[in-house]
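2.7 Reproducibility. Because tokenized structures are sensitive to small changes in the input, we list the exact sequence used for B30.2/SPRY domain-containing protein, including any N-terminal residues retained from the expression construct. No trimming or masking was applied before prediction.
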Amino acid sequence: MNSLKSTSNNWIGDGSDGNLSVEGTTISFGSSKRGTPYNVRLDDDSISPSESMFYEIEIVELNGTIAVGAVTKEKFLPGWKSRGIFYNGNLTNGSAALLCSFGKFVAVGDTVGVFIRRDDNGLKAFFYVNGRCLGEAFRLDGAKDVFYPCLHVSGSSVVKYKTPDSLPSETNRQPSERPDAYSGEWELTKAFDGPELGERPLPDNHKIILNLQSSGEKSYRLSVKVGNTLSTSIDIIGKLEAFDAIKVGECMSTMMMPPPELFEFEQFLNSSLPELRKMIVSEGGDLILSGATSELIARQYEKKFEPLTKYEN
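Resulting structure tokens (single pass, no recycling of outputs):
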């Protein structure tokens, strides 16, 4: 059961020069000084330090940036002085980014969920964006303080506050949605080269990530980080049986000297990428890029994050 279901809808500001209006479940608030954020939190003494809670914020209007999270009474302070556990795309404490690119940056139309799970060991915080679980963000062992729902805005925003009946059942990080079959990050799992396509060993203890991003209809930008970052373009120009026929542009590279164990593989990719002629996402979900004398096989990649164990500097 979600402990917030029995709480009031009384929100208070941080005491600084901002504005706050609450009408039903709609919260309108904003900072009055440019460059200075304004914080608001739920004010209800019935919230227990031993019970789990979950709430969602739907972003209706946003002029600036917003972070969604939780804060204790003692750390709920004016402007940048507040310290809590927040998500705005990064994980932040309300003053500084603690872990970047944890998820997408919050925008109008998004719904952000905050799940504070309590157990005998302390507190775990999970964030959700548009129903997708981003996984465990904070793990505060021994935390006994009450944390209150809190919003932090630089600029102004209108949001809708919701308290679902039940707590989330999914707490593992879920894959991000992809706009098409090819876009996104892919981890290289196998590479083949030579006329007979013999398997080439991958570098030990080093993930090779292919990043494909749409640059137009049937066009992509491909970047690959080995030692240097290799980048090129891929255009879909037709069909080759079940595959998409592709034309790969000239391969560009940054000019660092990679470690010896990466240099040879980087040279292989640098020469092989422009020779690729077709690609497909297989029924098993693998990305296959193939040419006459080389082939790359990759699987969808989702970066993993370890939960933060503190939020104060």
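Residues 59 and 110 are 6 Å apart (CA to CA).
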